[in-house]
Every structure is written in C-alpha cells, then in structure tokens.
Amino acid sequence: MQAIVDWLVSQVWSLGLVIFALGAGLYFTLLTRFVQIRYIKEMIKLLFEGKSSESGVSSFQAFCMALAGRVGIGNIAGVATAIAFGGPGAVFWMWVMAILGGASAFIESTLAQVYKRKIGNEYRGGTPYFIEKGLNIKWFAILVAIVVTVSYGMLMPGIQSNTIAVSFENTTGINTSMTGIVLVALLAVIIFGGVKRIASVADKVVPFMAVGYVIMTIIILGANFSEIPAMFALIFSSAFGANEIFGGIVGAAIAWGVKRAVFSNVAGVGEGTYSSAAAEVSHPAKQGLVQAFSVYIDTIVVCTATALMILITGMYSVTPEGGSPIVDTMSGVEAGPLYTQAAVETVLPGAGPLFVSIALFFFAFTTLMAYYYISETTLLFLDKKMKFKWMKTVWKVLFLVMVYIGSVESASLLWAFGDLGIGSMAWLNLVAILLLTKPALKVLKDYDSQKKAGIDPVFDPVKLGIKGADFWEEKLRKEKENEKKSVG
C-alpha cells in the first residue's frame, strides 16, 4: 500500500505541477500588471484597516488564519531539503516563485470573496464555492469539497501532531501520548469556540511565532555579521550558475527553489481561499491583496529566515539527486530540522533542540487550527442547508481523534495520503482559477478605477456583469432598502 501511494504522490507532485504553478503565477502577474508589486503599500494598509463584524472576521484575522496554514513544518524542513538538493541558489528561485505566487494568491482569494456565502451567521467560501457559482459545474465543486474535507480533516492532522509529539519526546523525553492529550485539549477549546475563536487565537499566536523566529535569525546573523555579504553573494552566484562550486547544478537550484516555494506558500493551491472568504470587506480585491501579502510573509520572511540561519553558519550539505556530495558539512545528517538546530547550536550551544521543538510546535499547532477550519468549511458546502446539525460536532470530535492518533502512531502512510490529497487539490484549484480569470480581472479593474477616482472601493457584481455573486447582490439590495427607509 505504501509503495502504491508513494508512486501516486510522485506523479501528482511531479515537475509538471511545479511548471504549472510557475506558469500560472507568471500568467496572472502579466494579466494583472504586477498587482502583487504595484499594490504592496496598499496591502499593508488594508491589513490593519478592516474590522470584524457579527458575521465576518477582520482582514488581519483572515490574514493570520491563512498564514497559520501556510507557515508549517515545511518552512523548517522543506527549506533545508531545497538547499541540500539544489544548493544555495535554490533560495533565490524560492524568492522569484514567491513574487509570482503573489498574483495567483490574489486571484484565488479575490474569487473566494466574490462567491462567498453566509451560512448561519458566518461567511463561508473557498474553492468549491467559487467553482459551483462561478463555473456552474456542480460535480467538479463536490469533487473538490470531498478531496479537501478528507485531506484536511482526516489525513493531514496526524502529520502535524506526530511532528510535535516526536520532537518533544526527542528533546524533553515527554511521552507522545501525553503530548497528544495536551494537543487535543488545547485544540478542543479553540475549535469548539467556532471561527471567531480560531481567528482570535490566530491573530495573536501567528505574529508571535513569526516574530520570534525572525528574532532568532537576527541573533544568528548578528553573530556572523561579517559573513553576510559573502552569503548573499553565494546565493545569487549559485542561482545563475556563476559560482565555481555550484555552477553545475543551476537547473536543480531552479527546480528545488520553485518547488519549495510552491509547497510552502501554496499560492494557487486554494488553501488560503477559505479564510479569505471569512473576511468582512467592502470589495473582494481588498482581501485578495491582503492574502497576496501573506505569501511574502511565508516565503520571503519565514522560509528565508531558515535559509539564512543554515547558510551563514555553513550547517548544510549539498548532494544533487543521483550525484556525489558537493558540500558535505552535515555528512550523515538527514536534511531537515536538524540543519536549523545545528545552525542555532553554533551561536547558542544547547539551545538548538529546544528552539526547533518550540518552533515546530507553534508552526504545526497553528496549521492544525487552519486545517480544521478548512475542513469544516468544505463539510458545510457538502451539507449546505445543515440538514444534520450534529454533523459539525461529530466532525470536531473526529478531527481531534485523528490528532491524537497521529501523536502516538507513525504518520508515514498518512503523510503520503495527505500529500496525494493536497497535490490533487493543487491541480484542481489551478484549473478552476484559470477558468475564472475573467471575473477576477473585472474585479481588479473595478478596484483600480475606484481607487483612481479617490473613493473607497465598493463591490457591485451586477454593474460588472458578474453572475453568481449572490451574497453581494443581496447585500446591495438590503443597503438600498435601508437607504429608502431612512429617506422616507
């Protein structure tokens, strides 16, 4: 079974997906006239501008919820792997893909806002929602919803909890079952509190963990200050084949850098669409811009922090796939968290294992919160009218059970199944947003024109000829009715 699933994963997460994601990012970048670059100041402004409402979370909370899913254990382990197989130049291509991915993130998150719904007293939306309303292909939407619900709700949680439990057992000797119980208890308090509590925890924990990780990076860089120019020179020269040591693996640098960025920030994969739809905004493009910025935080900030710690301390090895080692400093050590651990040890002896364990805990725990929210949102799509009101409670319990099982059991097969589900989701979501490019561009053009006119953009789908945006049509209708009543 493991061999079959591993083969399927290798097919789904092939070079084809990397090229597809890179091509889509470039395509959206050109069509939007580099929206992810020309609106950077606007992104930061919008991040703190929006306020939450009775039904929606604030733009910042939605941003943190998306970042909770984007920033995970891959930001530590995955970056080390990219360097180990692609050399220091992989870091540069990781940056390039992050910039292009910002355009993909803008498109998918804008679409999530356009086609969102109000279910109960909460805003919900995401890939299956905009496939059903935007493309009017119900079977496609149901397929995506099933893949996402099973992947994020049953297969992926165990991977994150296993990483936390094993890390703490190796570092502190704490039994994995005890860690599992604590994780379940903490998560239960959060997810049984609903989306508002998830958002409230995310907007506090996510900034804290990101800032803490960056502070450690600054400490490492400060201790090796004189080496900073040489380190950046190494990254750039290796990226273009100019470095005498890594010049022969420039192809691997590009492939692994792009792959790492795609796998880390999941721009265009659909993961950020669910939290985007939950935000209270006056125009869909606003949240699209905010979510594009989350890609930068994930890759340009957090992934880069890992890369810089590893590179400036020299705690890495580089062995091209199928080749001999070019650099063998970490001989016999598997590429992953141990590279970061060794980097911290060079400056703060004895602190490496504990730092990595704490970082993994926060990264994985916030990812678990994001996973639950995503799976619940797609579950609600499958049961739109809440015919079975008990279903959400049962799903919460099942999710917590999977978290505990993952803590005490090997996660290898679950990891493979999860990768298969997420990889499949990437292909499906990229196809969907490419087919919905036209309405997304209409929204951006409308936002541009209103900004140029000096007004705060307000979305009117009827005026733009966008069909299926039921929430926004109903919202405008109610606002007009209220205006008439106030005048009368």
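Next protein, fold it too.
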Amino acid sequence: MPTPTDRRPLRLPRRDDAAFVAEVLRRETVGGVLALLAAGCALVWANTAGDSYEALRRLQLGPLDLEHWAAEGALAVFFLVAGLELKRELVVGSLRRPADAAVPVAAAVGGVLVPAVVFVVVNLGSPDLRGWAIPSATDIAFALAVLAVVGSGLPQQLRAFLLTLAVVDDLVVVAIIAVFYSSSLHVGWLIVAVAALATYGLLQRWRLTSPWLLTPLVVLAWWATYAGGVHATVAGVVVGLLTRVATEQEDKLSPAERLEQALSPVSACVAVPLFALTSTGVPLGGLSLVSPVALGVVAGLVVGKPVGVLGGAWLAGRIGGRGPGLAWRDLVGLALLCGIGFTVALLVCDLSYDDARAAQAKSAVLVGSLLAALLGAVALRRRSRLRLG
C-alpha cells in the first residue's frame, strides 16, 4: 500500500545543495528588498515629479540611455547569474539527476505555458495578444524574499525546489524573448556574437580563465547580440551556461563559482534595483486595471501561474514516479508565490508595447505580483505553523 510519502514529488537534496540554496537565499532576499524599495521610489517619483523621472530614464550615457542600460545591460548581468546557477544545477546540482529534475522542470514549463494561455483567452480577438508572455515569468528575488520571511518552519527542499523552478523559468522566458521579441535581425552582428561566445566556450574548455582574455569576449558578445537585434540578456544566459563548473585539483572553486560569487551581489543589489527604478515608474492617474491587457496579466499571474506549476508537477509525478521529499500541500503556497512576476515581466511589457498598454501591463504586473505574494505568504505561513505545531 502506498504511504503518504509516495505522493511527494521531490527527493531530499544533498547537504551541499542545501548549503548553496541557503547562501543564494540570503543574497536574493537582500536584493528583493532593494528592488522593492526601488520600485516604490519609482512609482512615487513618476507620480509626483514625472518630468524629472523621465529625464532620468532618458539620460544618455554613451551609446545608450539609462533605461536601455538597465534593460539591456543590468539585466544581462542578472541573467548571466541565472545561467551560472542553471549550469551548476545541471552539472553538480539537483538537475544532474533526471528523476529529481523532472518535477521542478515540468512545474517551470507549466508555469510558463498556462499563464500565457490565460492571457490569450482573456485577450482573444483583440489586437493586444503581443503581450502573451508577460505573466509567464517568476521573479526569483521577490519569491525567495517572501519565502524567507514566512517559511521559517518549512523544509529546506522547498527553497531548493523554488530555486530550480525559477532558474528553469528564466531560461524558458529568455528563449521566448529571443524567438518572439527580437527586433529586425542583423546577421553580421549575430555572427560576431556567435564567434565571441564560441571563443569564450573554447577558452573555458582549455582552462584559460584569465579575465584579461574573457572579459573583452563577454563584452563583445553582449554588444554584438544587442546590435544584432536579439535582446542582450540572451548573451548573459549563454555566457553563464558556457562557464566551466568542474574544478581543478589545486582550485577550491570552479570558474563558474568564482564568477557567481563576484556577480551575485552586483546582480541582486545593483542590477535588479536599477532596472526596477527605471521600469516601474508608471503614472497612475486615470489608469484602468479593467482593460483586457491588465486583466489578462493579473489573471495569468494569480490564477495561471499556480495552476501551471501544480499541473506540471502533478503530470511529471504521474509519468515519472514520485520520491520522498515535499508533500503536495507544501507546493500549493509555493505555486501561488510563483505568480510574483516583476523583473522579467516588466521587461516583457516594454518589449510588447510602446503605447498606453505598456503602462496598463506594468500596473497589472505590480498588482498581480502583490496579490500572488499575499496569497502565497498566507498559505505558506499557515503551512509553516502547522509544521511547527
């Protein structure tokens, strides 16, 4: 007869996996708080001194203005760190074992697809369908921050599950951006980007890790990707995936671990807050949250995300079997928490619309993310209290 643990979809992580998740949790929690403060500052600024806020966003710094530096540059650092985390999980972490990876990966894919379907259903027959991917992304910094505040009595593997899900979610959304939201392509620049990335990968393979060699290649790949018409965050993910995780006998840390340690504070405490500051300043006067775009985004985040995450996890569990670890009731609050879109969702808003619909979509992202955070926090707090007795 099956025991209750047979209905738990994720195995316990190894001790070193748990230590890594705890370290990431501390960094992302701080970053989430800073990004929230930056978003609040942007909203107040845009609605009290809108002209000066727009002047800041349009401030020209070299070849790009501040808004584009934040979206194309700062977020490239954010996605580079996501790529490093994913590479680690694939090589030495939880994703290296297909049976363990199946459930969080399927949950991530379901959490991307179902919100998009919800948005399309709400906006069917309207000219607003270009924003279908807005509610598909999960913001790892905010989700981990909420989990850290309310989940003290919850098992450590719940955090590991969220980290794995969010990293895979980021990768899928970056692929969507590359395929569906790229501007007119310039083949010459894209060839340069591919050549720079290939050279970077070869140098990693040959154990040549001098920053004097690698940094110019990364910068060239980033700029060539942007100039080629593909969003520059794609270059960040690819660099992360190409960075070597294996260590030499004389090294305590691999190149990927060293790079992640160096860039994670920059990503969490500078890149994401800067993007939040330049992207969330939406004038709220006369803004409607009952437009099809806004309703589609809110419904996608609050309803589509948890349904997709739970549905994907359930389907993977049915197909691939279930190991001991998390109870399904633990995953309900986590699935609700995945509706926190914020960073990447705001990016897709800018890529989808260049008129009043962008402001509607951004406001809906903020409202939907807040609702998801509150619902997830209530569910996880209740579950934590039950576990603590």
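About the second fold: Strands lie at 60-61, 64-65.
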